[in-house]
Model the fold of this input.
Amino acid sequence: MSKLLLAIVLAATLVVGSGARAQTYDLILRNARIVDGTGSPWYRADIGIRGDTIARIAPTITVPATRVIDLGDLVASPGFIDLHTHALRGLFDAPTADNCVRQGVTMVMVGPDGSGSVVPDGMPNDAKLKPLLDRLNALPKSLNIGSFIGQGAVREAVIGLAKRQPTPAELERMRELVRQAMIDGAFGLSTGLFYVPGAFTPLSEVVELQKVVAPFRGVHTSHMREEATGVVEAVNETIAIGEQGGVPTHVSHHKVVGKVNWGKSLDTLRLIDAARQRGVDVTMDVYPYSAGSTTVQSGLLPAWAMEGGVREAKERLKDLATRSKVKEATSEILLTNFNGDPGNVVIVTCDWDTSLAGKNLGEVTRARGLDPVLENAAETVLWLVENGGCRSVHHNQGEEDLRRILAHPAAMIASDGEVAIFGRTQSTRAAMAPSPAYLRSMCVRRASSRWRKRSAK
Done:
């Protein structure tokens, strides 16, 4: 097909009318290419809408309508579900969520990565889901919203950010919090084993909590423990959580970080295929771009340095011997995960110094009067953390892995984005969501690359 098909998104479920009706419609969409989400081939038909309900789908609808739109070659489909988002960032300020709905997203899932996403202002971080769901229900909004309960939030509510095993009583309290969240309406338990305190959680502890989720037919989603050197082992762990916990298990934003690790998606996808063949319900989502985003402190400091959170990390850095160890570990992270180039880390937001937004780590290092070598860049990272931390974008993924994961039958697209407040939100990914424009650009680049290879022969 020579041109990109624009998706006309219908938020209601496609319901086929039982027969011709004489009543008029509020809207008729003529000549729609209908992709109904069942996996069936597309077909052409007219769609009659009355109020907020699709009242009829038929090859031709000839009765009168208040408004008629001829879609021509455009596609009509159910609204898209964005399975992995941080939409609570911005949703209460911009409940129309324009950057989502204008790209066809009509439902988002929040509470990923084990942290329960962002706790909105004025709400306690106590791992209780009902107050958040009540607030969302009362909010006039454009999106449907579902939520996970975060394992990290549950653990923090019970034992804080400490690196230790829970006592039997503490583990039982965690079970109770998860059970109540499932009763209140959680879709499942998310983990963020890359982040503190998830990074301090052993497999056995996660499995015990997933066993609470299983009777509710909930699911497990995971920002895995590793997406770089240990990505293969992390996929194995994610599969084990589902297999031992008795729940469907899902790899969030599957990626391979660091040039030295590119190509490992061949191994991770083989593991997923093998698990599915033996009956494990394992799936994944992937964002259609080759850069990730998190905080500087989470992405560039070792997990042990973040025990107790940013406040304790700042205290820890005051000890010269500990600081040296953290700096050495951060240098290694820059080398392995960022191809040894501080320019691959770009500051997105920094509340304590807004002028840093848009600058990469090498530029910030140079602005401090230092050559942007790894050791100095690592020192700049510590300086950023000591001042309160920043959010950054990380350019460290290969497009071949990205394409391979996107093409896998068990993969789906998710944004890992937020609700953009135009003129204020600076994160590119937040505004893109699972952007059709970006997908189109990937297709164009791929086609151009193939054309150049053929021309060179």
In short: The chain has three domains: 7-78, 80-290+400-420, 294-395.
